[in-house]
Design brief:
mainly alpha
Length: 126
């Protein structure tokens, strides 16, 4: 597989976040906590989200720095991948409702900036 360019990495982040958000919006926390299939979907999509953000950090640090909660998303990916037996699904739900919308918003903004010729330059978030 060829290396991912900035647009491809941002697309991966956006697709994973939208997928989680779409499923989150169609259920409740109680239903999510009772549905092991949906929990597995969230785990996998959070892994993809964190992996893509980790790649973004390596290849386009300035863009990574402008996405809120990017580092915790990478950390979450590592917890899911390496501590699969200790994943707290209530915490996954909380993340999906609290900071996932901001990750998605920022990734979409960066994708739009790239599409308009902005590249990966610009001020970094504080």
């Amino acid at each position: 597989m060829p290396p991912r360019d900035l647009a491809g990495i941002l697309s991966d982040v956006i697709d994973a976040a939208r997928y989680i958000a779409g499923h989150r919006d169609r259920t409740t926390e109680a239903a999510f906590l009772a549905d092991t299939d949906l929990q597995a979907i969230f785990e996998r999509k959070f892994e993809i989200l964190g992996e893509a953000l980790g790649l973004l950090r390596k290849k386009h640090a300035s863009v990574f720095s402008r996405i809120r909660h990017a580092k915790p998303a990478v950390d979450l990916r590592n917890v899911i991948a390496h501590g699969y037996d200790s994943v707290d699904h209530a915490l996954l739900w909380d993340i999906a409702t609290r900071w996932l919308p901001e990750v998605l918003e920022d990734a979409e903004l960066e994708f739009a900036r790239l599409a308009s010729g902005g590249g990966d330059s610009g001020p970094t978030a504080s």
